[in-house]
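Sat 14:20. Reprocessing the chain from the morning session after the first attempt stalled halfway. Input below, unchanged.
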Amino acid sequence: MKKILFYGAILLSSIWACTQVPISGRNQLLLVSDDEMNAMSFTSYKQFLDTNKVVPANTQQAAMVKRVGDRIAKAAQSYFEKNNAPDYLKSYQWQTELVQSNQVNAWCMPGGKMVVYTGILPITVNETGLAVVMGHEVSHAIAKHGSERMSQGMVAQGLLTAGQVGLGIAMQNKPSATKNLWNTVFNVAAPTGAQLGMLAFGRNQESEADHLGLIFMAMAGYNPQEAVSFWGRMAAQSGGAKASGLMSFLSTHPSDEKRIEDIKRLMPEALQYYNTSSKK
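Finished this time. C-alpha cells:
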C-alpha cells in the first residue's frame, strides 16, 4: 500500500512537472529547476576549464568557435522572443570555449556552458560545419535534456519521497546518491572533470537536438544543408572510429543513414528560417 501511495504521489508530481520541448512539442518530465541545474553546471564547467587546456581566445580557431556560439545563442533568443517566450533563456549564461584535445567531441551543459574540442575541427571542415555541431549541442541544453535525465534518474533511484520535487531536496535526502547521479548523467570524472560531457542521450532526444539545431543554425545565418554533408563525413569515417578518435563522439551521436534521412526530411522547414535570415 505504501508503494502504491508513493508512486501515486510521484505520478502526480510528474503530471505537475510535465512540460513541452520547444519546437518539437514532446512532453517531458522535469523535476528540477533551471536555477538548481545551472548552479551545479556552472561549478562543473569552471572545474573543467581550470583543469584542461583552453585555446587562447585571440587564435583564429578559438575566435571562430566563439563567433559561432554567439550567433547561435543570439538566434535562439530571437526564436523565443518571436514566439512570445522572451524569458525562456533568462537563466542561461552563454559561454563557449575551444579546448585542446584529440577527442572528436563537443558538448553544452545546462545554462549554455559549451566546449568544443580541437579534435572535431578537421571533420567540421568550415564554420558552417561547426555550426551544425554547435547548433546540435546547444539544442540539448535548450531542450533541457540534462534536466530530463536527472529527473528520470531521481525517480528511478528513489531520491525523492512522496510528492517531492527538486534537485536540492534530493541532495538533502540522499546527497551521495544524487551527486553520483549527476556525475553519471554528465560524465564528470573526479577529481579533474577531464571527461566532462553528456551521457548518451536517447533517440528521441538526439532527434530533437538535430531538429532544433537545424532551426537555430539557420536563424543564425548558416546554411542548414551543411548538416547532410557533415553527418555524411561522420558516417564515412565511423568505420575507423577507434583509430581516428571518433569513438567518443559517436558513442553519444549516432551517425547513420536514418539520421541523415531525418535531417533531409526536416530540411524544408529549416530552409524557410535560413531564407528569412539571409534576407535581413
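Residues 56 and 62 are 7 Å apart (CA to CA).
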